[in-house]
Amino acid sequence: MRYKDNAWLLDQTDLKILEALQEDARQTYSAIGKRLGLAHSTVYDRIRRMEQQGIIRKYVALVDLEKVGLEKITALMTVFTDPKESEKIAEKLAKSSKVLEVYTSLSEELVIIAKIVSGSQEELHSFIADSVAPLPGVLRIRTSIVTKKFKETLASISPDLSES
Amino acid sequence: MKIDVALKVPREKAFYFFTSIGNYTGENAASLKEFMEKIDMVNIKSLEFHLQRGDFEKWILEVLQDSELALEIRRLQKLGLSGDALRNQLFSAVSRRIRYLSV
User: For residue A161, what is the DSSP state?
Assistant: First the structure.
């Protein structure tokens, strides 16, 4: 791992360790080492360095809300905006606890795409009507409520990202 | 209390026209006069959506504080109108009220 052009460059070993952690962050250094043919101390050192440099930001639990009876409505909201106000709108949305992800995108028009969770359809509508539609620069909004989730995962480390 | 038909309420209290849950048309009204104008031109689906939910009645009562018009809107809701008949009846009710308040 070395620093170049304002970014940490990871070698193949770092990337493989990250891949292993993304599959199961609770496995031991020995288990990862055994799988990758490395000493557990090597795995420990590299993970420590990546934690210290903020490459590994945190370890989280993926909770199946349905199994604990806390299933919520997920919706994908597209907000068509005045280009001048787009950044401000995206920043405001990002501050809401109901909004999980926010992206700006340039298609035919400048749009913001956000993933929202809500306890009910009515709560979702109130949030959009009271907190999103009135924001200056919002031109119109299209919202799709997710009916079935086929895949949800974290971005994985791809060998394509490795140092060349 | 005398209601000013052209008085604009703050942006966050305006009426925002949706066609369904989370789908905002881009049209909004900040006064009774603007509300009447938008009734005339907004997507008919939006009028049906809000009337059935009681949103018009709620906004007119809570934000514009016009209980007379809110009652009139509730009567319309009970008629189960749709399409152009709904638009015409709604427009007539609001424009009648505006004429009355403007005298």
Answer: G
